[in-house]
Design brief:
Length: 359
């Protein structure tokens, strides 16, 4: 009888001891590898098809976790993970995305990170005055999307992308609609997603400008074309409304805009040549509807993506009788505005004389 009593006492005790031992082992395996002062960090990507075993092996090899098998145990038995760490069962899984972990985190905290499915964000700055080809090049350089595919979207899918904003004026591309801004794209964003975000930003900013009318898309497009020319002409913000007024006054009397910016567009975007250091008289003779030295009125499409200053300058231009402007302070990018050809030529000659005297 005594033997039976001893067995009855010893066996449960051994079971309890074994359970406690396993509990302590698992608890210890789930604890941080190091304290915060000595923590090792790891940033990695969980790609599609990555298994729990592969993730566990990487974390163990990198010194982030103590035991890869316990990591696998929690992923396959979330209830155990919950009991040991106190975290919800829903976190004990892995999702495609980017993770930032360190060896001072326990398994519960690590699972919270690997189950979040975070996407890496890439910052890309799109300055004012870029054409869609240059925007495409920047996106490709940042490894967000292929430049050719982006250009294909901007041309073949332009009207479809503009449709949600009630834009009905027929256009052949999104030239002018890719608003200049610093964007944060998710790595792997599609060309369509990139274009849609830029267009969405354009209409958001456009709505903040006074005296605009989103319903009159034909007028909107004409103003956008003019703003793109103003964008490439002004350097001093305060002069943008004045430059816009000069071009508007010229259009009223069917006088050519005579903008060098449109000639540069012909050279780089149509003739596919490097950006010119200077424009020659032969460039002014090139036959193209974008050549505002040969043809009066606006070019057929925008020549770049204008920013807020240029757009606002066109819709809220200064009220002047100016027909000319000439650069008279190269260091500050400031111009002298005149109403007659004689005054314009005088201002130009004075600037050239002053410049020559200073050389």
């Amino acid at each position: 009888m005594k033997a039976k009593r001893i067995v009855a006492i010893v066996i449960p005790a051994l079971i309890i001891a074994a359970v406690c031992s396993v509990w302590l082992f698992v608890k210890n395996a789930a604890s941080p590898v190091s304290n915060a002062d000595n923590a090792e960090g790891l940033t990695f990507e969980i790609e599609s098809g990555t298994t729990v075993r592969q993730t566990a092996a990487l974390l163990k090899k990198s010194g982030i976790i103590k035991n890869a098998d316990i990591f696998y145990l929690f992923a396959r038995n979330p209830k155990i993970g919950k009991i040991i760490t106190g975290k919800p069962e829903s976190v004990f899984k892995i999702k495609k995305g980017f993770c930032n972990v360190n060896s001072a985190m326990d398994l519960g905290e690590i699972f919270e990170e690997v189950s979040a499915g975070k996407q890496q964000m890439i910052s890309v700055s799109i300055p004012e005055g870029l054409t869609i080809t240059k925007v495409a090049s920047r996106l490709e350089a940042a490894k967000i999307c292929d430049s050719k595919e982006f250009l294909k979207v901007c041309t073949h899918e332009a009207m479809d992308i503009l449709k949600p904003y009630g834009f009905t004026q027929q256009v052949t591309s999104l030239e002018g609609f890719l608003y200049p801004e610093t964007y944060y794209f998710v790595k792997g964003s599609s060309p369509r997603e990139c274009a849609e975000l830029m267009v969405k930003t354009f209409f958001k900013k456009f709505s903040e400008i006074k005296n605009t009318d989103l319903k009159d898309t034909q007028s909107l497009y004409k103003q956008l074309v003019l703003a793109s020319v103003v964008e490439r002409e002004y350097r001093d913000v305060s002069e943008a409304p004045l430059i816009a007024s000069v071009f508007k006054n010229r259009i009223k009397i069917n006088m050519g805009l005579e903008s060098c910016a449109t000639v540069e567009y012909i050279i780089t975007e149509i003739r596919k040549k490097p950006h010119p250091g200077r424009i020659f008289f032969s460039d002014l003779e090139y036959d193209s509807p974008y050549n505002t030295y040969k043809y009066a009125g606006l070019p057929p499409t925008p020549i770049c993506s204008p920013g807020f200053t240029a757009l606002d300058a066109v819709y809220n231009s200064a009220d002047t009788d100016y027909l000319y402007f000439t650069l008279t302070d190269a260091s500050k990018g400031r111009h002298t505005f005149t109403s007659t050809l004689a005054a314009h030529e005088k201002a130009t000659q004075e600037f050239r004389t002053k410049k020559a005297a200073g050389e």
